[in-house]
Amino acid sequence: MLVRFWGTRGSLAVAQTATSIRDKIAGALVAAQGRRFADKAEALAFVEGELDFAAGATYGGATTCIEIETDAGDGSFLLCDFGTGAREFGINAFGRMAAGHKREFNIFMSHLHWDHIGGFPFFGPAFDPASRIVIHSGHPDAEQAFRRQQEEISFPVAFDWLRAKIEFRTLVPGETYAIGGVQVEMMEQNHSHRSFGYRFTDAAGKTAIFSTDSEHKIEAMEDEEEVARFFREADLVICDTMYSLADAVSMKEDWGHSSNIVAIDICHQAAARRLALFHHEPVYSDADIERMHKESIRYEELTRRDQPLEVLCAYDGLEVKL
User: Fold this and answer.
1) Residue 143 sits in the same domain as residue 288
2) What is the pLDDT of residues 115-152, one digit of tens each?
3) 258 with 304, same domain?
4) What is the CATH number of the domain that holds 84?
5) How far is it, in rounded angstroms, from Cα 4 to Cα 2?
6) How far apart are CA 11 and CA 70, in angstroms?
7) What's the structural domain count of the chain?
């Protein structure tokens, strides 16, 4: 199983500013201490080998979109959410379809807020008459949400102008579905208008969890046993860690998102193997996100139970092989 992250920000897509790019360049020049590089490859080796991630790269600014690829699938694309990262995914998918990839997409929606559906109007395969798109959701009103954002007052291209064959299917929590060559389970989560987490298991037994836009409260961890069971022994848990613990329990309580600390606690309880910090706060800089990642690694070490939990920090373009 291969997991690709096409969009990792929460709530609102963001872009690097001129000032932030200048700061990165200035920081890299200072770190280089006057050394000369023979060519671009040598300079890149310095950036990748000696600079922190936040200093030499970026976590990105596209909103939620994750692809899951399996060797034993039925050849269809498997995608979680239609955030703005779906635009880049669609461009990439056209290249693979030109090389013979099946023109079928199974999409699994966590929920219907703008940052999770806003990439769909810019999703190229939706305009391809040879493509088939099946949108799976726990929300019976999913089609209404997708159509509404393409009404004339909001967008110049009407939903009915799309040429792909588009279907909407409502899934039920607690059931197990065979879709796209993987086993899929769904769990209802604590978020406005409800959100849903997904558990994907391939033929080799590898399991990835997609759980975003869900609030887990540190003062009520006894209520998270069902979540821990859903995460049980997962090879990768992609989890909403939008806020620091301080933010999550103070001014942003009941906003429908969680912290890195709570995610680690639940993953420890579930004996999960990897956690990907995800749905990054749009006001956080790359340095802020990297700082949270380092703090998360340290917290995991201090609270580790039997087996270690590897803590990754998701960024646009990250690929994780399970």
Assistant:
1) yes
2) 999 999 999 999 999 999 999 999 999 999 999 999 99
3) yes
4) 3.60.15.10
5) 7
6) 29
7) 2
pTM: 0.95
State which H helix or E strand residue 25 sits in: helix 18-32
CA distance 57 to 69: 25
3-class DSSP state of 156:
coil
DSSP letter at 203 equals T
Same domain, 35 and 129: no
Q: Report whether 215 contacts 85 (CB < 8 A).
A: no
180 and 81 housed in the same domain? yes
Sequence length of the chain is 322
- 50 and 80 belong to one structural domain: no
pLDDT tens-place string over residues 67-101: 999 988 899 999 999 999 999 999 999 999 999 99
CB count, 10 Å around CB of 148?
15
- Residue 227, burial from CB neighbour count under 10 angstroms (0-12, 13-18, 19+): buried
Do 165 and 78 lie in a common domain? yes
Structure tokens at 131: 């493509």
245 and 285 part of one domain: yes
Closest CA to 253 of 245, 241, 261: 245
Percent of the chain, pLDDT > 70? Answer: 93
Calpha distance 243→257 (Å, rounded): 7
Whether residues 164 and 210 fall in one domain: yes
pLDDT tens for residues 14-63?
999 999 999 999 999 999 999 999 999 999 999 999 999 999 999 999 99
| Mean pLDDT, range 211-234, rounded to an integer | 86
DSSP 223-255: GGHHHHHHTTT-SEEEEE--B-HHHHTTTTTTS
Q: Which structural domain, as residue segments, surrounds residue 50?
A: 18-56
